[in-house]
Design goal:
single chain, about 260 residues, alpha/beta, TIM Barrel, eight-stranded parallel β-barrel, two-stranded antiparallel ribbon, 12 helices, about 15% strand, disordered N terminus
Length: about 260
């Protein structure tokens, strides 16, 4: 896959163009975010006993194409996750590459009582204000696309709004950046977002480097309850699962999450 263009770089370039349209609404989002009700403590939810499942509302991806099929209803999917025993819901809001939408965030937040994570490629404070305004309790920060100073600023902004961000890394350098920036919820992504290759061994290896007091989240490439339990054994508090659950029926989702929660 060495000749494939850097997908992450392309995504960020598109995101910067989208921000040109978003920035005029910055003041509106900031005002709405400041007036929003108190958010849930995302980190506390993940630290509960047992392995927590963050179930993702995901319509498509660059690597897999359309996952959810016809009749995709974000709120209905999220309710099936809550009924199935998920601890939290992640909502993909990127339009260009994942066929998501910020509107999905508001729909999901209004449909479930679980804490909601905005998953996107955040490179601006306006996106964080927008996330809170639309009902998010947390948001994703990707170490690969942000400088340490930006991570620190965005973490601080989130905390001022009552949101603790999930900071994602996929190698040692990115993990060190997340730790030094003061991240309290640290994710390790098995998928290299530059190439989209997946390796769960990376997630296991980096687990040992995460501070003990941080909430630890394993992301991507988790296909079976056995995969989930393998990562629990590596020390993770939670897993974030999107594609696998998106392809299942509501009943199958509940059975899958139930196996994870009961240890198989």
């Amino acid at each position: 896959m060495g000749d494939i263009p850097d997908i992450l770089k392309r995504i960020v370039e598109v995101k910067r163009r989208e921000l040109d349209e978003l920035e005029p609404k910055a003041a509106e989002f900031e005002s709405r975010a400041m007036d929003a009700p108190s958010s849930e403590d995302f980190g506390a939810v993940l630290r509960r006993a047992g392995l927590s499942v963050i179930a993702e509302v995901k319509k498509a991806s660059p690597s897999a194409g359309n996952i959810a099929g016809e009749g995709f209803d974000p709120a209905e999917v999220a309710r099936s996750y809550e009924d199935g025993g998920a601890a939290a819901v992640s909502v993909l809001t990127d339009r260009e590459f994942f066929q998501g939408a910020p509107e999905y965030l508001a729909e999901v937040a209004g449909a479930v009582s679980l804490p909601v994570l905005r998953k996107d490629f955040i490179i601006s404070a306006t996106q964080i204000f927008e996330a809170r305004a639309l009902g998010a309790d947390s948001f994703l920060l990707i170490a690969a696309i942000l400088e340490r100073a930006e991570l620190e600023d965005f973490l601080g902004l989130g905390r001022s709004l009552g949101m603790e961000a999930l900071v994602e890394s996929h190698d040692e350098d990115e993990l060190e950046k997340a730790i030094s920036a003061g991240a309290d919820i640290i994710g390790v992504n098995a998928r290299d977002l530059r190439t989209f290759e997946v390796d769960l061994a990376t997630v296991e290896r980096l687990a040992r480097l995460i501070p003990k007091d941080a909430a630890k989240v394993a992301e991507s490439g988790i296909k079976t309850p056995e995969d989930a339990l393998r990562l629990a054994g590596a020390g993770y508090d939670a897993i974030l699962v999107g594609e696998t659950l998106s392809r299942l029926s509501p009943l199958e989702r509940g059975a899958w999450i139930g196996k994870v929660k009961t240890g198989g």
